[in-house]
Amino acid sequence: MAISTYAELKTAVASWLNRTDLTTQIPDFIRLCEVSVDKNADARNRRMETSTTLTVTGNTADLPDDYLEARAVIWLSSPRAPLEFRTLAEFEQTYTSDAASGTPSNYTITGSTMKFGPYPASPAEGVTLYYYQSLTALSSDGDTNWLLTNYPDIYLYGSLVASAPYLLDDDRIQLWIGLYDRALAELKGADARARYNGAPVRTTVDVVVV
Q1: Out of 135-139, 187-191, 204-208, least confident range
Q2: DSSP 8-state assignment for residue 41
Q3: How distant is the alpha carbon of residue 140 from its chain centre?
Q4: Confidence at residue 200, expressed as pLDDT on a 0 to 100 scale
């Protein structure tokens, strides 16, 4: 059975569950799978990466709606300045006044806002955010996305995991979880090979001082 569109995925889930009465519930199972993928660190991979230039007002900028996790934050000064993350408490303890301004060297995140310190002397320079974005949810029958195209098994098994509590199917949930976890591991392994395969191997030597 081909699983390349939202409609085909819904049909596959119904088939694997051997049920024809879950038309209303199956979209919920699929959506819960998507949420699970977004939350799972093992699902992070290069296909989720994107970048955007944020507009800075004062010393803050709004994060994109699909933001999950930062990869790199670059202040667009000349030369460009990579920013280091600080916890909110560390940030507020370090940057206690807006009077001291300059090129930012740190950032923190509070809610859906990114803050920069020290206070930007030239906020119009802006900042480039490289980040992991959330999965584009399926909604129309013809919809697809990178995960469904490349790893339909993650969508299928993740949806089956989500179905088990609703169906009170305790006997099957461990089977679905095992298949889902294995599919996620395959995704993680494939991403590592795509990123690093062919890179030169560096040998490290441990020096023991007596």
Answers
A1: 204-208
A2: G
A3: 22
A4: 58
Helix axis angle for 152-167 and 26-39, nearest 10°, is 120
CA–CA separation, 26 and 23 (whole Å) = 6
Burial annotation 74-95 (CB, 10 A radius, 16+ → b, else e): bbbbeeebebeebeeeebeeeb
Kindly tell me the sign of the dihedral angle through the C-alpha atoms of 186, 188, 194, 199.
Answer: negative
Distance of CA 6 to the CA centre of its chain: 21
DSSP assignment of 61-89 equals EEPPTTEEEEEEEEE-SSS-EEPEE--HH
Give strand ranges (E) for the chain: 49-54, 60-62, 67-75, 81-82, 84-85, 101-102, 106-110, 113-117, 119-120, 127-133
Q: Is there a contact between 141 and 15 (Cβ–Cβ < 8 Å)? A: no
Rounded distance between C-alpha atoms, residue 50 and residue 43, angstroms: 15
pLDDT in tens, 115-166: 999 999 999 999 999 999 999 999 999 999 999 999 999 999 999 999 999 9
Q: Give the end-to-end CA distance of the chain in Å, rounded to a whole number.
A: 65
- What six digits make up the tokens of 19? 């049920």
pTM, entire model: 0.84
Neighbours of 36 (CB within 10 A): 18
State the pLDDT at residue 99. Answer: 75
